[in-house]
TrEMBL record:
Entries under InterPro entries matching the protein: YdcZ
Keywords: Membrane, Transmembrane, Transmembrane helix
Organism for this UniProt entry: Rubellimicrobium aerolatum
Keyword hit for Transmembrane: yes
Transmembrane annotation, as ranges: 38-55, 67-90, 96-116, 128-145
Pfam family, one: DMT_YdcZ
Highest taxon of source: Bacteria
Lineage: Bacteria, Pseudomonadati, Pseudomonadota, Alphaproteobacteria, Rhodobacterales
Protein name: DMT family transporter
Length: 147
């Protein structure tokens, strides 16, 4: 795929992530974080089963390493934590901004130390500057908002 298409896919994914956190935090506000995690995972399971029924196995014949199957557990925890945080003074934008800081920070650590089979790569000054700018933007969103 071309780079512009991949950029559009990533931007669309970010928009969908925002909608997902909004939906999940709304359920969480009404029914609690466990239910707020169960609902999207149950509906996601149904959607995945339907997609498999329609598309079949698209690619990949190998098996993933054992640790990769923890993604579901990590997803459930992420949904619960982000749904709780979005219902606080952080609001949706602050929750997503800090989540991005956590993602970028963990990504740099995974690259640096080759965590979970990632190829090792030292962070450049641009990587660190980018992380600092994301953190600064997050601070502006959270602390610069009118009260």
């Amino acid at each position: 795929m071309s780079r512009p298409v991949l950029v559009l896919i990533a931007l669309g994914s970010g928009g969908l992530l925002t909608l997902m956190v909004l939906c999940n935090s709304t359920v969480t506000a009404q029914a609690g974080p466990v239910w707020g995690s169960l609902v999207p995972h149950a509906t996601g399971t149904v959607a995945a089963v339907l997609a498999l029924a329609v598309l079949g196995r698209v690619r990949g014949e190998g098996t993933a390493p054992g640790w990769a199957y923890l993604g579901g557990l990590l997803g459930a925890l992420t949904v619960m934590l982000s749904s709780v945080a979005a219902n606080t003074a952080l609001a949706l934008s602050g929750t997503l901004a800090l989540g991005l800081v956590g993602q970028a920070g963990f990504g740099l650590a995974a690259d640096r130390w080759g965590l979970l089979g990632m190829p090792r790569r030292r962070a450049t000054w641009r990587d660190l500057l980018s992380l600092g700018l994301i953190l600064g933007g997050s601070a502006l969103l959270i602390f610069g908002a009118p009260r």
